Every structure is written in structure tokens, then in C-alpha cells.
């Protein structure tokens, strides 16, 4: 069974600007150690899945091409470092739309969850908003809150990709028990 990291994009992999839209290459900036950490976590065996809300993507205020140019550059940069997301899920609805596909709802992940054998007990969401923590709860996995603040719903909180990577690659709950029955 696969262990999956359901990872938010803005504010978690890349810096989210004040206007909350990465709509130009000038606004595209990776968070410290995000790239090397994603590579290490992928090499450790986690499957990476991006899950992002992009309010109004494809509208006049956030045209599709202004979204795609920095998004594709981000993906190419990650690919050049050996990082590829198994799936990318992006919802463009607004909160008022109450879409079942918008985080923290799980609608956009339904086909992925049904079509794969996923170990949700050992899978995590990683994100900078409470909707990411709620997504974990709705999926039945654990949450890592990418923030300097503690969150009681998250199993771990940190604003450092290095700390998150250390936590995920050295967890004590990744133990097994071997018992042998012999006639000796």
C-alpha cells in the first residue's frame, strides 16, 4: 500500500504573495528547502500528490494563462530536480460556491482514492491553512501544519521543510514486530 503526501501548493511549496495569486514568473519563489525536502521524501518512498485551491482560476481576474505560466515553470523546476507529482488536483471554485471538490472536501480526490491502494494511516496532508488540516481529517490521514503555530488537529506543526522531512523520515511509528515460532 502506498504512503502518500497530499501537499498544498501556495504557502507550502512556493511563497504565497499578499494578493494570494501566483500570476507571474516574478511572483514564483520556492520556500527554503522545499525542493530538496520533496526529493528526499519522494526517494524515501512517499508518493507526492498536489492538492490546491486556486480561487477563480480561469476568470477575468485570474486568467488561465497567467496561472499556467508560473505553474508550469514550478513543475518543470521540480522535474529538473527529479521530483514529480503522481497527480495534481486543483480546484478553481470560490468558497461561496460550496463545491464538493474544494478543500477541505475530498471530491477532487475521489477517483485517485478509488483507483489506488493507499495506506491512509501512514499518509499525510501538508499545508499552511486549516483547510489542509481539515482535508486530512476528511481523508482519514494525518496532518502536518506548515506554520510556526501549533494546531491541535495536526499531528505535527513546523515552518521548516527540514524539520518536516526529519519528522517524516525518522518516525517511531514506522516499526514492525517480527515473531518466530520454532520447535527449538
Quick recap:
With 184 residues, the protein is of the alpha/beta class. It has helices spanning 34-44, 64-80, 110-115, 130-139, 161-169; strands at 4-7, 47-53, 87-91, 124-127, 142-146, 156-158.
SSE class: alpha/beta
The counted number of beta strands is: 6
Radius of gyration equals: 18 Å
Coarse morphology: globular
Task: Please give a structural write-up.
There is one protein chain. This protein is an alpha/beta fold and 184 residues long. Helices cover 29% and strands 15% of the residues. The protein contains five helices and six strands, in the order E-H-E-H-E-H-E-H-E-E-H. It has helices spanning 34-44, 64-80, 110-115, 130-139, 161-169; strands at 4-7, 47-53, 87-91, 124-127, 142-146, 156-158. The protein has a six-stranded parallel beta sheet with strand order 3-2-1-4-5-6, sandwiched between helices. Helix 1 (34-44) links the parallel strand 1 and strand 2 (47-53). Helix 1 packs parallel to helix 5 (161-169). The model has no long low-confidence stretch (mean pLDDT 92).
From the structure above, extract its key features.
six-stranded parallel beta sheet, globular
Layout of helices and strands:
Layout (H helix, E strand, L loop, with lengths): L3 E4 L26 H11 L2 E7 L10 H17 L6 E5 L18 H6 L8 E4 L2 H10 L2 E5 L9 E3 L2 H9 L15
Parallel strand pairs: 1-2, 1-4, 2-3, 4-5, 5-6
Helix pairs in contact: 1-5
Amino acid at each position: 500500500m502506498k504512503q502518500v503526501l497530499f501537499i498544498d501548493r501556495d504557502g507550502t511549496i512556493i511563497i504565497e504573495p499578499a494578493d494570494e495569486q501566483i500570476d507571474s514568473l516574478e511572483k514564483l519563489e520556492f520556500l527554503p528547502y522545499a525542493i530538496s525536502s520533496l526529493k528526499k521524501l519522494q526517494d524515501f518512498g512517499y508518493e507526492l500528490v498536489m492538492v490546491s485551491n486556486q480561487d477563480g482560476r480561469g476568470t477575468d481576474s485570474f486568467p488561465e494563462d497567467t496561472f499556467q505560466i508560473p505553474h508550469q515553470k514550478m513543475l518543470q523546476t521540480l522535474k529538473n530536480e527529479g521530483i514529480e507529482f503522481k497527480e495534481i488536483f486543483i480546484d478553481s471554485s470560490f468558497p461561496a460556491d460550496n463545491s464538493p471538490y474544494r478543500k477541505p472536501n475530498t471530491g477532487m480526490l475521489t477517483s485517485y482514492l478509488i483507483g489506488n491502494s493507499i495506506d491512509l494511516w501512514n499518509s499525510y496532508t501538508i499545508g499552511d491553512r486549516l483547510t489542509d488540516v481539515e482535508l486530512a481529517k476528511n481523508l482519514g490521514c494525518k496532518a502536518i501544519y506548515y506554520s510556526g503555530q501549533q494546531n491541535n488537529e495536526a499531528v505535527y506543526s513546523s515552518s521548516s521543510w527540514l524539520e518536516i522531512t526529519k519528522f517524516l523520515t525518522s518516525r517511531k511509528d514506522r516499526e514492525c514486530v517480527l515473531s518466530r515460532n520454532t520447535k527449538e
